[in-house]
Design goal:
34% strand, two-stranded antiparallel sheet, 5 helices, alpha+beta, 60s Ribosomal Protein L30, Chain: A
């Protein structure tokens, strides 16, 4: 078995719209800044997957200086990363994701995020856990300047 961890952070900008978390659109009064779609969940998950198979990080595979990845759909990038995992001979054992945000409220979107991650990683929803916490108003997350995600993945042969 192989274990990987991934962390991602993106700042907010004061432009109303929606943010994408685990490939799920979440309406919000701000949007996230990033080279691609700034999906912190999928970025953390991809880094965890790549780390577990010893294949570097998403910056190595999808450099932010490459215009080809400007505004890219992170779900599509995740499919490519998952292809690397499958080619290396692994399947998902389980995935645990923690979102750190004061706002927006994450709980109403957790079932959709769980289902989307399970779909992208060809796994049952029972192998995916998504949860959220605040930072009790501390730091950049507490000041609602950004959002962060952490992912831990267990890969099994097969």
């Amino acid at each position: 078995m192989r274990v990987g961890i991934g962390i991602d952070v993106h700042p907010f900008q004061n432009i109303p719209g929606e943010i994408r978390l685990a490939g799920v659109p979440v309406p919000y009064e701000k949007t996230l800044v990033g080279h691609s779609d700034a999906d912190v969940v999928l970025h953390a998950v991809m880094d965890a997957l790549l780390g577990a198979i010893g294949a570097g990080d998403i910056g190595r595979h999808f450099p932010d200086g490459d215009p080809a990845f400007r505004d890219a759909d992170s779900a599509e990038l995740c499919r490519q990363v998952w292809g690397l995992v499958r080619a290396a001979g692994y399947r998902l054992g389980n995935l645990d994701v923690s979102l750190l945000a004061e706002r927006p409220r994450i709980a109403p979107h957790v079932p959709a995020m769980t289902a989307r991650l399970a779909e992208l990683l060809e796994a049952p929803a029972s192998a995916v856990n998504v949860k959220a916490t605040t930072t009790e108003k501390l730091g950049f997350i507490g000041r609602e300047e950004g959002i962060a995600a952490q992912a831990v993945v267990l890969l099994l042969p097969g």
